[in-house]
């Protein structure tokens, strides 16, 4: 499991507002800053909250007007975890994250316990190989699904692609996968043989790294399949979940449909599902 250490709070007048009077308040237990644009944190879990790995909830803080300022966030922890983990962007002038980035252990956030989303196993028909395609913070729902036993029960192979501009932006995902393979509790829960099913394929687009390029292009020209030594995506065997910017989701949908996959939903499971990592 990703280890997080408390960090000193930066000097700011945008201190998170305590929300003890709110019924949906949860307490921050850990915070880790990955880059100047990315951080992750853990909070207490409401006892009554049930969710499916891959879903998202609304979280936030009290705004300056005293009203809750909420945004959609994928739950990055698996459904069995005692706490909830989130992986977040820091938008410097963003109404929520300009404040949220300063939370510290002991602070409270608001969490509406109504999970929803399409990046769930129930929205896919059975297959042999599952692909998780993420850009940026779109890795968050897959951080949950990679720690979900059903992922390994349902599939023989799990291919995780993560594309970011810079190498540092890959680190949360890279460490999470590395720790899965080293953490005894995770090995016991998920099975060492199951963790060998993971094929991790990180790429960068604006900083030199071992694999450069947009995943859409690397799929279209066959590079991904050649690099991993696997056959191309096939509608009979392959299932996919996609989480990135709107432009990424649109372009990747076209690629997947080119391989013959059809978009599914909770009410109508098919071969692939998509969720936006952010709006805008
Ligand atoms: C279904 C869903 C799930 C989401 N899950 C997450 C998550 O797990 N982690 C997360 O950090 N955000 C997630 N978001 C985005 C999140 O809801 C907020 O937009 C984000 O926290 C910024 O809030 P803000 O109020 O500071 O700025 P906003 O006013 O919400 O956004 C300002 C601008 O910042 C950019 N932006 C916003 N979010 C991101 C992002 N994640 N990556 C890159 N650019 C961004 C966009 O250009 C946006 O127009 C999700 C959004 C949706 C719709
Ligand atoms: N990341 C940063 O360092 C940074 C810094 C300041 C501000 N911002 C702003 O923050 C917002 C989000 O940035 P982000 O980097 O988190 O997300 P992003 O712009 O969606 O890019 C994330 C990764 O996805 C790739 N990508 C984007 N669109 C794609 C598509 N249609 N098909 C395939 N791959 C695609 C990008 O490749 P490309 O590089 O080829 O686009 C990049 O590697 C943007 O508005 C950006 O201007 C980002």
From TrEMBL:
The keyword Mitochondrion does not apply. Residues 21-122 form the FAD-binding FR-type domain. Its EC number is 1.18.1.2. Residues 1-20 are annotated as: Disordered. InterPro entries: Cbr1-like_FAD-bd_dom, FAD-bd_FR_type, FNR_bac, FNR_nucleotide-bd, FNR_type-1, OxRdtase_FAD/NAD-bd, Riboflavin_synthase-like_b-brl. It holds the Pfam family FAD_binding_6. One of its GO terms (molecular function) is ferredoxin-NADP+ reductase activity. It catalyses: 2 reduced [2Fe-2S]-[ferredoxin] + NADP(+) + H(+) = 2 oxidized [2Fe-2S]-[ferredoxin] + NADPH. One of its GO terms (biological process) is cellular response to oxidative stress. Keywords: FAD, Flavoprotein, NADP, Nucleotide-binding, Oxidoreductase. Its cofactor is FAD. Belongs to the ferredoxin--NADP reductase type 1 family. PANTHER family: FLAVODOXIN_FERREDOXIN--NADP REDUCTASE, OXIDOREDUCTASE FAD/NAD(P)-BINDING DOMAIN PROTEIN. This is ferredoxin--NADP(+) reductase. It comes from Sedimentitalea nanhaiensis. The lineage of its organism: Bacteria, Pseudomonadati, Pseudomonadota, Alphaproteobacteria, Rhodobacterales.
């Amino acid at each position: 499991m990703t280890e997080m250490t408390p960090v000193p709070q930066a000097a700011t007048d945008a201190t998170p507002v305590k929300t003890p009077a709110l019924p949906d308040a949860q307490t921050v237990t850990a915070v880790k800053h990955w880059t100047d644009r990315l951080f992750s944190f853990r909070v207490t879990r409401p006892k009554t909250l049930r969710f499916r790995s891959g879903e998202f909830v609304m979280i936030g803080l009290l705004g300056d007007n005293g009203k809750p300022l909420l945004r959609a966030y994928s739950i990055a922890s698996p459904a069995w975890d005692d706490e909830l983990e989130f992986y977040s962007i820091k938008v410097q002038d963003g109404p929520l994250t300009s404040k949220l980035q300063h939370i510290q252990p002991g602070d409270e956030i608001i969490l509406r316990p109504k999970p929803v989303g399409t990046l769930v196993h129930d929205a896919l028909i059975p297959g042999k190989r599952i692909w998780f395609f993420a850009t940026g913070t779109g890795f968050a729902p897959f951080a949950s699904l990679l720690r979900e036993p059903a992922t390994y029960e349902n599939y023989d192979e799990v291919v995780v692609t993560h594309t970011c501009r810079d190498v540092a932006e890959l680190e949360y995902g890279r460490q999470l996968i590395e720790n899965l393979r080293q953490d005894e509790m995770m090995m016991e829960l998920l099975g060492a043989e199951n963790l060998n099913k993971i094929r991790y394929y990180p790429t960068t687009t604006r900083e030199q790294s071992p694999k450069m390029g947009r995943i859409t292009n690397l799929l279209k020209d066959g590079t991904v399949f050649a690099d991993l030594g696997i056959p191309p995506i096939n509608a009979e065997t392959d299932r996919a979940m996609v989480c990135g910017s709107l432009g990424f989701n649109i372009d990747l949908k076209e690629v997947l449909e080119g391989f013959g996959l059809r978009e599914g939903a909770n009410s109508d499971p098919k071969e692939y599902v998509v969720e936006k990592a952010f709006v805008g």
